[in-house]
C-alpha cells in the first residue's frame, strides 16, 4: 500500500511499462491497469511500453528500472525469474492461476525423485521453468546458449535436459551429445508441425 509502482509487465505483448510521472497505490494500479474486463487492456498497456522483449529480457530490464514494485502480467516462472534477478524489489503476479504448459510439465517433486534415482546425472534446465526446478538443476540455459553449455559438460556425464524436449532434441542435433529429455513441451509450439507450416505457405 502506498508504494510507488513504476514498472508494469505484460507477457502476451512482451512489454515493460515504466511510469515515472504518476504514483499509484498498489490497489489503484492493479484496478486501473489490469483488472479491467475488456479486450483493449493488453493493447493499452503495450502502447504505454518503454521496453519490448521476451520474458528473460524483461526480467533483466527490471534491474535497470527505478521501481519499488514490479507487476509481471504473465505466468509464474516469469515473475519468479524477475524476483530472482531483483531480490530487493517486490514482484507481484496479478493472476495466481496463470500457468505455462511447458513450465508446469516439470514439477520439482518429480525432478527431485529422478535425481534421487540418478544421482550422477547432470541436469540442464531451460530458463522457462519454475524457480524450484532451477534450484535442483546444475546449470540454467537459454535457447541461445544451450548448445554452448552442453558442449562444455564433461563427456563422462549423463545429461538430463528439462523441461523442453523439443529444444533438447534440437540441441542433440547440434551437439551430437546423447541426452535424456524430460517429456515436456509448450502446447502452442506442438501445433507448429511441418505439415501445418507447409499448408500456411500454400495459403
Explain this structure to me?
This protein is 42% helix and 17% strand. It is α/β, with parallel strands linked by helices. The strands form two sheets. It has a five-stranded mixed β-sheet with strand order 3-2-1-4-5, sandwiched between helices. A four-stranded parallel β-sheet has the order 7-6-8-9. Residues 1-41 have low confidence and may be disordered.
Distance between the termini: 53 Å
Strand order, largest beta sheet? 3-2-1-4-5
The residue fraction in helices comes out at 40-55%
For the sheet with most strands, the description reads: 5 strands, mixed
Whole-number mean pLDDT: 76
Low-confidence stretches: 1-41
Structural class: alpha/beta
Count of helical segments?
11
Percentage of residues in strands: 15-25%
Short descriptors:
5-stranded mixed β-sheet; 42% helix; 17% strand; 203 residues; 11 helices; alpha/beta; 4-stranded parallel β-sheet
In terms of topology, how is this protein built?
Layout: E1 5-10, E2 15-18, H1 26-33, H2 41-47, E3 51-52, H3 55-64, E4 69-73, H4 76-85, E5 90-92, H5 101-104, H6 108-117, E6 122-126, H7 131-136, E7 139-141, H8 146-151, E8 159-162, H9 165-175, E9 180-181, H10 187-190, H11 194-202
Parallel strand pairs: 1-4, 4-5, 6-7, 6-8, 8-9
Antiparallel strand pairs: 1-2, 2-3
Structure in a nutshell:
The protein has 203 residues and is an alpha/beta fold.
